Amino acid sequence: MTSHITTHVLDAVAGVPAAGVGVRLVRHEGGGLTTIASGATDADGRNRDLGPAALEPGTYRIVFATGEYFAARDQRTFYPEVTIDFVVEEGQDHYHVPILLSPFAYSTYRGS
C-alpha cells in the first residue's frame, strides 16, 4: 500500500536517482512540530512509505537530509537540509512531493 505522502529525489548534477537521502515527515501542531514518519530514499530515489495511508488535513513538512547525502559523496553543499512545507486538504488521496537536487540549488513541485 502506498502512503498518503510519497517523494522522489533526483540528483540533477549526477543525472541519477538520489539513493539514501534521509527523509522526515513532520506535522505543524499547536505552534510546534511533530514527526510523523522518517525513512530514506531507495535505489530509485523514492520513498513510498513516508507515513500512513491517510493524514488529517493540516500543514506538513518534508525534511530532506541533503547535507548528509552530499557529505557521503565528498561534495560540498549550501543546503544542509531542504524543507518543504505544504497543506494536506480534506478529500485528497495522495500527495507526491519530488525534488530535483544539486549541491547549490533545488526545485520542487506537486507531483502526481
Automatic annotation (TrEMBL):
Keywords: Hydrolase, Purine metabolism. Coiled coil: none annotated. InterPro entries: Hydroxyisourate_hydrolase, Thyroxine_BS, Transthyretin/HIU_hydrolase, Transthyretin/HIU_hydrolase_d, Transthyretin/HIU_hydrolase_sf. SUPFAM superfamilies: Transthyretin (synonym: prealbumin). It catalyses: 5-hydroxyisourate + H2O = 5-hydroxy-2-oxo-4-ureido-2,5-dihydro-1H-imidazole-5-carboxylate + H(+). This is 5-hydroxyisourate hydrolase. GO terms for molecular function: hydrolase activity. Its EC number is 3.5.2.17. It is an enzyme of class 3 (hydrolase). Belongs to the transthyretin family. 5-hydroxyisourate hydrolase subfamily. It holds the Pfam family Transthyretin. Homotetramer. It comes from the Bacteria. The keyword Hydrolase applies. Catalyzes the hydrolysis of 5-hydroxyisourate (HIU) to 2-oxo-4-hydroxy-4-carboxy-5-ureidoimidazoline (OHCU). Residues 5-111 form the Transthyretin/hydroxyisourate hydrolase domain.
